Structures are given as C-alpha cells and as structure tokens.
Amino acid sequence: MPELPEVETSRRGIDPHISGRRVVRTVVRQNRLRWPVSEQITTVLPGLQITHTSRRGKYLMLHTDAGTLLVHLGMSGSLRIVDPQEPPRVHDHIDLIFEHGIAVRYHDPRRFGAMLWTADDPMQHALLSHLGPEPLSINFDGAYLYRRSRGRKVPLKSFIMDSQVVVGVGNIYANEALFLAGIRPLTEAGKLSRMRCDRLAEQIKLVIARAIEVGGTTLRDFVGGDGQPGYFRQSLNVYGRGGQPCLVCGGTLTELRVGQRSTVFCRRCQR
DNA sequence: CGAGCAACCTGCATGC
DNA sequence: TGCATGCAGGTTGCTC
Questions:
Q1: Confidence band (pLDDT; 50, 70, 90) for A231?
Q2: CA–CA separation, A112 vs A177, rounded Å?
Q3: Under 8 Å CB-to-CB from A265, ≥6 apart: which residues?
Q4: In the predicted model, is pLDDT for residue A27 greater than 70?
Q5: Which helix (H) or strand (E) holds A177?
Q6: Distance from CA(A262) to C1'(B15), angstroms, rounded
Q7: For A9-28, what is the mean pLDDT?
Q8: Domains of chain A with CATH codes
Q9: Residue numbers of A annotated as active site
Q10: Which of A69, A77, A80, A82 has the fewest beta carbons closer than 10 A?
Q11: pTM confidence score
C-alpha cells in the first residue's frame, strides 16, 4: 500500500495516540524484516517518551530524547492502534506498547519493511542522507527537475521514481503524474524540455497532495493499508487500467514494463 | 559514474 | 480441487 501519501496518513493517524507518551514495553515476534529489527527497540526504547513524529520520504520517524525509531512500511506494511491485549494476527510482527494502554502494532506480510534505531541525527542515517527533496517542498520544482535530468538517459518514469531525485513518487503516482502532465513514460529523462519539467513537477505535487487529503479523511484513526477500502483508487486515471478506455479520449490505454514496473499510459493524451 | 536487473518475502489471481 | 505461474504499492545492491 504505502506510497508517500499512505505513509503520511499513517503518521497522522498514530501521532495523536503516541506523541508525548511513554513506551513501556515492546514485543518483537518476528525480527526478520528487510534488515534485522534493531535490538535497541527492546533494550533502549522501553521507558522513553515519544516526543514527536515526523516523516522523510517514505520513512516514518518516532523521536525520543535518546534516539529515533525509523519505520519503513515496505510494500505491504501497515500500522494500527490496538488494545495490547488483542491477540496478534498473522504477520503482526511488532508491538510498541504505551503507558496509557494502547499499542502501535506493525503488520507486514512480505516483510520488506524496516524498523531501525538510530541514536544520532536521523537525517545523517545512510538510508536518509542521500534522499532527494520532498515533492511538496519549494525545493522541488521544474527548474530542479530540469537541472537533475540533464544527461540522464533513463526513462522519465524511472527517473522520477528514483528517491535520490525526489522522494515519495512510487509506481502509482508516477503513472498518474505522467498522465496528468501529458508525457510518455519512456521519454528520455535528459530530453525533457524546461516547460515540460514545470508541468511534470506541478502534477507530481498535485497528485500527491490530493492523495494525502483523501487518505487523511478516509483513514482517520490510523493505518494505511490492509483491509481498508481503496480510497484513492476511484480517482486513478491509468494505474491498473491497462487495456481499458482512457477516461479523457476513450482510446485504449497501453500497458508495458518500464524498469520491471507495470506502466500504463495513453498514446493519444501523452506525448 | 549510469543503467539494468535480481533479490528480499507472502498472498492472491489466473490458467491448466 | 490442486498446482504452477506470474504479479503486487519499495528499495538495495549487484553486474556490466
């Protein structure tokens, strides 16, 4: 599930339940995620207060005075606020149990996610230090895209999905943003005109901002993920619609693979 | 350095 | 019904 909007929705969902609250206990039922779950989650975190939460790209951060918990949801991860007494379901790998009798429960069938502790400035962490700008920040615009894309021969879609270029543009939103900008995904990144860089940056911002808005109203109490209705799905123009008619021109949407990822676009609307 | 691709896992849809 | 296959929203890290 998680692209940037889902991660931000998850952060907003859990934040009011845990900010300012103390962790009293943690339970790690499965420590084999993408990397082994940091032992500090058991040895250091209990007793510490979560001062606040934040997000960088698709990484969630739970801050304490002694360090930061980095959480990544991978491809199938989700968070829920639960009663710690509630029996865990399959793939409920980790509980962070709080003083006031609630728990943040991490669920991840494919275990592509991560739960890592860092005592230092989290932004200096190897996973975060090379990340590109946030798509909704003023640092991300057409001028930036133009500058970064010069000389690059990769397909434009792969380029905007590169987290070193800009964070948070996953497969769904890459497809959607390119459709809205009217640009074909296989366009060589380095050949994109300055004007089209403006259009693309603008559509990336719009599609992500809208998804956060919708996710925020639909998911409210927590999560982002499994079992939740496909809230953003109804507003998708191309993703998952290969072979079906384009909602704008009626032409048949083309589906192919770009960098091993399913890619859908309209030959007529996108040039 | 850039580009392409395998790999990490499980669940689910599809087709024989 | 059972089984094999392929695919899934992410990211790292390998090879060339």
A1: low
A2: 25
A3: A175, A178, A179, A184, A185, A238, A253, A254
A4: yes
A5: helix A171-181
A6: 21
A7: 96
A8: 4-124 (3.20.190.10), 142-265 (1.10.8.50)
A9: 2-3, 58, 261
A10: A82
A11: 0.93
